[in-house]
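testing teh design pipeline on a random one, pls ignore if ur not involved
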């Protein structure tokens, strides 16, 4: 019986991995996108500690995919060390893991020494973790930022100064207790499909009746009892996805809710952008 269970688990793992590798990649070889749940994995750090991504839920997590033979990685890593790790390593709400592609322990340890990085590096035999996030044959030098709900909120590729600075700024903002995430319509739709976030329309009843997103609940942000109503409907463990007509009122709602301790996602461009992009509307 035990052998049958192990065999079933092995087959299931293979099927999941195969499905991930069959996902249509973007121009940078990524097969995961903003708004989706980050694929889970377990790895071993160079100090022997075992780490599972899902165990870091509740933290902002940065994954850095790297390799000792990668010149661009060697260029980027000192900046990750100085601009990100040295700034936030004492923050219990942040985790950073460099995932080294398919190299032995001794080489990865030496890699850390030569690049002078002190953040944790992990082993990825066969590049199996890498292949959960990007096409297996695509290049390294990429970073994935994952929020405390396990949702991918930012991806980078190679080292470009402005893009890296944007990553640094996003990390700084997300570690602010009142931060919220703004997604475009594509990422927002992925979030709703994958995460089970509560969808809230913060416009007026008249606007709602003219058309709204599927499964949205109306709670007008201009109502004096807006926060009280939200508290009655949702616990703080439930992520909230908010939208309005153009994005202004929902940004206000996101700020108010974040200050109350909710984790909030805001739709950039609001209902107008959602409609313009041809996404589903209930009328």
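output:
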């Amino acid at each position: 019986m035990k052998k049958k269970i192990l065999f079933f688990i092995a087959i299931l793992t293979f099927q999941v991995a195969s499905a991930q590798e069959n996902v249509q990649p973007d121009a940078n070889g990524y097969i995961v996108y903003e708004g989706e749940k980050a694929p889970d994995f377990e790895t071993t750090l160079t100090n022997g500690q075992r780490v599972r991504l899902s165990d870091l839920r509740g933290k902002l997590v940065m994954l850095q995919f790297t390799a000792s033979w990668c010149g661009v990685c060697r260029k980027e890593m000192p900046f990750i060390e100085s601009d990100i790790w040295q700034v936030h390593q004492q923050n219990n709400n942040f985790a950073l893991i460099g995932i080294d592609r398919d190299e032995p322990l001794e080489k990865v340890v030496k890699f850390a020494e030569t690049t002078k990085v002190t953040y944790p590096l992990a082993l990825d035999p066969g590049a199996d973790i890498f292949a959960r996030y990007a096409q297996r044959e695509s290049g390294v030098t990429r970073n994935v930022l994952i929020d405390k709900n396990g949702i991918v909120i930012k991806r980078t590729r190679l080292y470009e100064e402005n893009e890296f600075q944007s990553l640094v700024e996003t990390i700084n903002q997300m570690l602010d207790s009142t931060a919220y995430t703004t997604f475009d319509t594509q990422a927002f739709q992925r979030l709703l499909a994958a995460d089970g976030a509560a969808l809230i329309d913060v416009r007026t009843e008249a606007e709602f009746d003219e058309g709204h997103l599927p499964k949205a609940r109306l709670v007008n942000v201009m109502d004096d009892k807006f926060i009280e109503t939200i508290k009655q409907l949702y616990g703080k463990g439930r992520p909230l996805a908010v939208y309005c007509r153009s994005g202004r009122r929902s940004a206000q709602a996101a700020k108010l809710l974040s200050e109350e301790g909710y984790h909030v996602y805001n739709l950039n461009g609001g209902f107008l952008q959602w409609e313009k992009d041809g996404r589903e509307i209930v009328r």
